[in-house]
Design goal:
The chain is mainly alpha-helical. The chain has eight helices and four strands. It has helices at 24-31, 34-43, 49-54, 67-79, 83-96, 101-106, 110-116, 120-129; strands at 2-4, 8-9, 47-48, 60-62. The strands form two sheets. A two-stranded parallel sheet has the order 1-4. The protein has a two-stranded antiparallel ribbon with strand order 2-3. Helix 5 packs antiparallel against helix 7 (110-116). The longest helix has 14 residues, at 83-96.
Length: 139
C-alpha cells in the first residue's frame, strides 16, 4: 500500500459506540505491535502516514503530488513479474498466516502446484540465463 504524506489512518468506531467491523479489531493486532494496536483501537485516534510506514502498515509514503507516479511504479514492478508466481505468492502467504510456520511450510497450495508445472516456471530461469527479459504467458 502506498500513502500520501497527508493521509491519516484510524479506526474511529469506539468514538461512535461501535467496534471496528470487517475484522479490524482482529486484524490490526496481527499487523502491528499489540500495545500500539490496542492504543489505536481503544482511542480511535488517527495515525499519520509516516507512523503507518514506521509500523509497516504501508510500503511507501510520498507527497500527494507524486502518489499516482509511485503507485504506477509499484504496479509496473508487479506486472513485470510472472502472473502465476504473483498469484501463488499471494495465495501461499495469506493461507500460511492461518497456521503455524511448520504447517505453512508443509502445506500444498493449489496455485503453487500450477505454477511449478507451468511454462512460466521454465521461462523465468531461461530468460535470466540468456540475459533477456522474460515473456510471461500465464501458462
Amino acid at each position: 500500500m502506498i500513502a500520501a504524506d497527508t493521509a491519516e489512518f484510524a479506526l474511529p468506531e469506539p468514538k461512535r459506540g461501535l467496534i471496528p467491523f470487517a475484522g479490524g479489531v482482529h486484524r490490526l493486532p496481527r499487523q502491528i505491535p499489540l500495545k500500539v494496536a490496542m492504543g489505536q483501537l481503544l482511542t480511535g485516534r488517527p495515525m499519520t502516514s509516516a507512523r503507518a510506514y514506521e509500523l509497516g502498515l504501508v510500503n511507501a509514503v510520498v507527497p500527494l503530488a507524486n502518489l499516482d507516479e509511485e503507485v504506477s511504479a509499484w504496479v509496473k514492478d508487479i506486472l513485470a513479474c510472472a502472473p502465476l508466481a504473483i498469484a501463488s505468492i499471494k495465495q501461499s502467504a495469506m493461507a500460511g498466516l492461518q497456521c503455524s510456520l511448520p504447517e505453512a511450510l508443509a502445506s500444498q497450495y493449489p496455485l503453487e502446484v500450477l505454477r511449478r508445472s507451468s511454462q512460466d516456471s521454465l521461462e523465468g530461469p531461461r530468460a535470466f540465463a540468456e540475459k533477456r527479459a522474460p515473456v510471461w504467458t500465464g501458462r
